[in-house]
Amino acid sequence: MNIAVQEPPLDYSFRSIHVIQDLTSEEPRRGLRPLRHSKSGKSLTQSLWLNNNVLNDLKDFSHVVSQLLEHPEKLAWIDLSFNDLTSIDPVLTTFFNLSVLYLHGNSIQRLGEVNKLAVLPRLRSLTLHGNPIEEEKGYSPSLPHRQYVLCTLPCVTTFDFSGVTKADRTTAEVWKRMNIKPKKVRIKQNTL
């Protein structure tokens, strides 16, 4: 196992951070174990916690993360819970090693935002509860919200802190066949 996975997170939670750029001047919280740093002074962790702040966008996220982490491409866990994000910023989809993404307690209004995350091959754990999407007609912690997410992100094994079972996968597949129309394939006809 990679040593960096065992490193404590770079923790900026509860710092009243309004913009991502503030991370470069803000001191991270200290945990029980000290963070290790490279010779250049950047953190060797693969986890970034930004929960319980007042972020409403992720402008310059990639740039700032590259200033903080020695290996930003290895970022595996991002906690953005309890902020004021209204959408899932496409910048999150550039971190292909992302396996844990916490977005609960934000202001995300459209369930369709989840579609953006389909490009993340290693995403295993996702949270979305506590967002306005819960107010969509027919929302329930199990249906159809859960089914939509499981259809869109088939590799997720934990959703809203609840494990995904084989029965969940089966129900999601049935739900998908009943509710999501397949895209029509247009066949170009050759004219003679």
Automatic annotation (TrEMBL):
It comes from the Eukaryota. GO terms for cellular component: cytoplasm. This is Leucine-rich repeat-containing protein 51. PANTHER family: LEUCINE-RICH REPEAT-CONTAINING PROTEIN 51 (PTHR46545). Gene3D superfamilies: Ribonuclease Inhibitor. Pfam families: LRR_9. It comes from Equus asinus (Donkey). It is found in: Cytoplasm. SUPFAM superfamilies: Outer arm dynein light chain 1 (SSF52075). Its main location: cytoplasm. Keywords: Cytoplasm, Leucine-rich repeat, Repeat.
